[in-house]
Give the backbone structure.
Amino acid sequence: MEILIKRLKSIKASLLLLAVLLVTACGSDEVKDDAYLKTATWDEIAKEAEGKTVNFMMWQGSPVINNYINNYVIPSVKEKYNINLQISGGQGPEIVQLVMGEKDAGIKKGQVDMVWINGETFFQLRKVNGLWGPFVEQIPNSKYIDFEDPFINTDFQQPVNYMECPWSIGQFAMVCDSAKVANPPKNLQELEKYVREHPGTFTISNDFTGMTLMKSFLAEIGGGPKSLEGQFDEEKYNKLSKKLWDFINRNKKYFWKEGETFPKEQSKMSQLFANGELAITCGFSEGGIEEKVLSGLYPKTTKGYPWDNGTIKNANYLGILGNASQKAGAMQVIDFLISPEAQFKKSHADGMDSNTVLDLTKLPEEWQQKFENAPKRQFGLEMEDLQDYAIEEPAPEYMIRLYEDFRTQVIEN
């Protein structure tokens, strides 16, 4: 009996030691992973990435973007790197909520590895230390990006500092059906006249796109395209936004549905424009017209046009979450997404129709010629058409406050 007790104690001690060693080893691997990747060669990172499953959270509201990801990117990274790329739907608020929830729960290895973000979300994730990096300089294809470009190295007045990787770039544009609106409004004074003469054919969406439109309005009220540059100014915002809410509230009875309700997403705005209820809309990617006209959703009389005071031009980015379990795999996928091959495929006017973030002068001659000879848009504006109307994204607090105050000052008023 005494021998049995000694053996049990010995087994118990061995199991306890094994558990301690396992915990220590796991902890060491996690720390080693981050530290190792910060200084690893690309060959080492690629080897670490091979065969892994990478989870990518992104907005899934566009059929052409979903098609690009599902039918081109996913099979490509599987074939080239043996990476299984899994997609989950989510954008700004969902990403931030996920990160904060996992932090509160003490989850060290999160559900998501990489995310599609910009400005407001970048700001919020940095505040909670939710992003891992800097990592962009380690990615081979980043050598083709011009990080001196202020529309790339600065995200909503925040230095990117290689904490997120540019993926696409575009400019906001106004859109009209030229068969219905021969001379579309190009400033607030003209817009006020237009909505009173054509009631029900204009509105503002209560989403990212609508808030971006209102930033252009706010800059116009401020006196010029540079009026919102610099850090967030509470006094300036209060002064300018009061005039904005006054403008909207005195005119909203001439909006769609008499301003009693506002579309909650851009897809609804597209439907309203497509069925003829709206004669004016707006969007990124120089208005987001091409695919909608080619698919027959929008009429061929659809035209993009600039706002006199300018519209927002910005980039969107790919980030790696701080508790990502497959950081190396995420780096490999991101490197592919900014490769000349993937960026060229993404730029096709009859496909995703997204401007490349690559500096064509930095590319090999073969790829320069491919980009230069690619078919241009038939219906939408090119980014070069709007270059004289480009406004930098203001500080993220402007977007956050516009969301809050549009609800309280307009929707609930």
